[in-house]
Amino acid sequence: MIGIIDYGMGNIRSVYHAFEMIAAEVTICNNPADLANAERIVLPGVGAFKDCIRNLRAGGFIDALHQAVFVQGKPILGICLGMQAMARRSFEGGEHQGLGWINGDVVHLQPSDVSLRVPHTGWNDIRFNPECPLFEGLPAAPDFYFVHSFYLKCDDDTDIVATCDYGKPLTAAICRGNIFATQFHPEKSQDYGMKLLENFINWKSSC
């Protein structure tokens, strides 16, 4: 069972239907107790970082997620803002503490090429670590759909398993233990996105 966390932000239905398309058993988790029935967890998100953390805390999800991910070892997929929430902190609209799962900061996109607009919106190809099982079966440099104005700058490059270029290399995906997350939206990325979601379902939770 795939449990998608609904904390009042994000394209929950789009992610839900993407998993339905690949015949996954999926449910929406509206409260922390629902996580008990989920074998794998998805943390989506669209919006502001501080609102994301506030809503997760208000819903009682932060402690429940820590228990599920770090004590029970359940695989988790973060998508877009869901990935950024895993960082130590964000500088979006001030300084805000994140979940602290990944050592790194969420910082504003500032492309050196003035022709590159912010937000970074649309298709972009990625370069991924071929040893990461989440990208199994994908061709070299597959393209995925991005919508973001901030990105995760990791302290440790070994946490980064994919990058994209937008004036400079940016973190496109991270993986540590049973934690995997993408800046791009697999649910909006057609065949390549569906393949990545299939890989998440079959993932043995080790990077």
- Computed structural class: alpha/beta
| Biggest sheet character | 9 strands, mixed
Low-pLDDT residue intervals, each spanning 5 or more residues: none
CATH class type: Alpha Beta
* Spatial strand arrangement across the major sheet: 2-1-3-4-13-12-11-8-9
- What is the count of helical runs? 5
CATH architecture type:
3-Layer(aba) Sandwich
The CA-CA distance between the termini, in Å, is 21 Å
Task: Give me the CATH superfamily.
Answer: Class I glutamine amidotransferase (GATase) domain
Compute the CA-based radius of gyration: 16 Å
Task: Describe this protein's structure.
By secondary structure, this protein is α/β, with parallel strands linked by helices. The chain has a single domain (2-202), classed as Class I glutamine amidotransferase (GATase) domain (Rossmann fold). The protein is 23% helix and 32% strand. The protein contains 5 helices and 13 strands. It has helices at 12-21, 49-58, 61-71, 81-84, 190-202; strands at 2-5, 26-29, 40-43, 76-79, 87-90, 96-97, 102-108, 120-128, 143-148, 150-154, 160-165, 169-176, 179-182. It has a 9-stranded mixed sheet with strand order 2-1-3-4-13-12-11-8-9. Strands 6-5-7-10 form a 4-stranded mixed sheet, covered by helices on one side. Strand 1, helix 1 (12-21) and strand 2 form a beta-alpha-beta unit. The protein is globular. 43% of the residues are buried.
Short description:
With about 210 residues, the protein is of the alpha/beta class. The protein has five helices and 13 strands. The two termini are about 20 Å apart.
